[in-house]
Each structure stands twice: as structure tokens, then as C-alpha cells.
Amino acid sequence: MGPGKGFGEGLSGVYFGTGRRYALTVGSGLQGMNDVRIIVVLPDGKWRENLPGRGLETDIAADRRDFGDSWGVWTASGGVVTATTQNDRVVLDAQSWTKLSPIDGLRTDGIFAREDVLGQWGGSPEPELMFCDDGTFEDRSGLLNMVGTTMDFDGVPKHLSEQQETYVLRPGDGTYEFRNFTLVLRFSDGRVRRISVYALPNDNLKRPKRLVLGSSGLVRK
């Protein structure tokens, strides 16, 4: 479980960068937009596009088998990492990429909500994730269902009925732990959920204003 010994040392680690993407849009033609990219560089010469859904608190060997298209190899030369796969080539350098600092062991307090839909809930309660500095959390109105899937849970089969999925994804509370770019949630009813997480570059790592949890950006309210 996890990225292995030596991860984070030297050139290995999790890198944050942005790239320019162009897409055709109705009425506006070709539009340019910035995409956030995450790359995981392991000490053994392997790299991965994006964090696994469960963060790095996962079986890396199994992830390589199941998501082989996301993995490539890298070599170091003159302080520059050149990562290549069959269809992609990525050069990481100090100008374009930032090595993310881990937030292992973080204890914080505050309420987080999805930034892209903040305040757009009308008369309905806004989905929120509340952290307390004693290591407990509360999922309010199902925010966690908006950032992950049933595959985030330990011991849950790949295929569930709609009723089973609703039961697994029900909101709850329990204790939390930040470890290996993973938010580990241990619900009071026994469920365990692992979702990828990182704090943005230049944020206050002891009290981050924003967290990227799964595929969504959360902001402190």
C-alpha cells in the first residue's frame, strides 16, 4: 500500500502544472483554456498521469495493471525529468511545474464546499464537509457523493444495484486522516473511504483555504 520507500525524495513526488487546451465551442469557435495537470513521479522510474482515485494510499501494482494507459517511465538528465508514454511526452521543469507538499497528518477545522457551485442551492441545504481539529468530520447533505464514487470505499464490489449504491454513499461522520495524498475517512458506522486530495501550491498547509478532493475543488467557507 502506498508509493513505496523513498517517495518524495529527489525528483520523485507529486507535481502540479497547467497546460493550454483548445476546443471548439458553439457560437464562439476555437477557445483556449487552461487545464490543471497532476503527475505522480515514483522513485523506481515510473510516472502516472493524475493521482489515482483513492490517492496514493492504494495498491500501486494493481493500479498499474488496471490503468496501464495512465502509466509511463521517466529518466533524469541534468535535473530535468523527461516522462514518456506511447502517446505523450512531458518535460517537468522549475518554470512550468511545482512539486506539491504533502499534508500528511493535517488537523484543521472549518467547513468546505464545492467552489464551482458555491451558493447556488437556493432553499436547499448546501452540501458541505466539516472538519474539526480533533480529527473528526461530518459529511453534510452528501458533499462526498459529488467528488468520488463507490470505488473509493474499502471492500465494496465494482458492481452494485442502485439501492446498494445509495446505501454505501449515504452521508455520515467519523474520523479523518490525511496521508499519501489521500483523505482517509473512517465513518462511525464502519465504512472506510479513501479519496485523492492535495492542497494547491502557495496555500497555507496548516490551514488551507482550498483542497482538491477527488475531481473537485473545495473552498473554505
Model description:
With 221 residues, the protein is mostly beta strands. It has 2 domains: 13-99, no CATH class; 110-220, no CATH class. It is 6% helix and 42% strand. Strands 8-9-10-11-12-13-14-15 form an 8-stranded antiparallel beta barrel. The chain has a 7-stranded antiparallel beta sheet with strand order 6-5-4-3-2-1-7, with no helix packed on it. A hairpin with a 2-residue loop joins β11 (173-179) and β12. The longest helix is centred in the first third of the chain and has 7 residues, at 60-66. The protein is globular and about 55 Å long.
Can you lay out the helices and strands and say which pair or pack?
Blueprint: E1 13-25, E2 29-41, E3 46-49, H1 60-66, E4 71-77, E5 80-84, E6 89-92, E7 97-99, E8 110-114, E9 128-131, E10 136-140, H2 162-168, E11 173-179, E12 182-187, E13 192-198, E14 210-213, E15 216-220
Antiparallel strand pairs: 1-2, 1-7, 2-3, 3-4, 4-5, 5-6, 8-9, 8-15, 9-10, 10-11, 11-12, 12-13, 13-14, 14-15
Q: Which parts are unreliable, with pLDDT below 50 for 5 consecutive residues or more? A: 86-90
Count structural domains: 2
Query: Which structural class matches the secondary elements?
Result: mainly beta
The percentage of residues in β strands lies in: 35-45%
Q: How does the major sheet shape up?
A: 8 strands, antiparallel, barrel
Q: Determine Rg (CA atoms, Å).
A: 18 Å
**Can you tell me the overall shape?**
globular
Mean pLDDT across residues: 87
Distance between the termini: 33 Å
SSE topology string: EEEHEEEEEEEHEEEEE
For the secondary structure, the number of strands is 15
| Quaternary assembly | single chain
Count of alpha/pi helices:
2
| Strand line-up in the sheet with most strands | 8-9-10-11-12-13-14-15
Q: Which range best describes the helical content: under 10%, 10-25%, 25-40%, 40-55%, 55-70% or over 70%?
A: under 10%
